[in-house]
Write a structure and sequence with these properties.
There is one protein chain. The protein has two domains: 1-35; 37-92. It is built from two helices and no strands. It has helices at 2-34, 38-91. The longest helix is centred in the C-terminal third of the chain and has 54 residues, at 38-91. It is rod-shaped, with a radius of gyration of 39 Å.
Length: 92
């Protein structure tokens, strides 16, 4: 009979611990459900700013590429003009 009372105490102790854990889990779930998600608003704002930053970089990169293409075209035109002048001199 002594062994049954020891097992009974352990079982009651584990039941109390389980009950406390269940109440804590329910309280945490209610807290998470009821608390507003401020991080979501921050992430939305951050994403907007982040996207704007990359759009600005894309515009700057496009402007640089356009400037490089213009310089290359001018160089090609100058080289072509030099070749035309050389050809004209040779023809004379």
């Amino acid at each position: 009979m002594k062994k049954d009372s020891g097992d009974s105490k352990i079982l009651k102790f584990l039941a109390v611990i389980g009950f406390i854990a269940a109440v804590a889990a329910i309280a945490y779930a209610v807290y998470r459900f009821m608390t507003p998600d401020y991080l979501e608003d921050f992430e939305d704002d951050f994403d907007d700013d982040f996207d704007d930053y990359f759009e600005d970089e894309d515009e700057a990169a496009t402007a640089e590429e356009t400037a490089e293409e213009t310089v290359e075209a001018e160089d090609a035109d100058a080289a072509e003009a030099d070749e035309s002048a050389d050809a004209a001199e040779d023809a004379e």
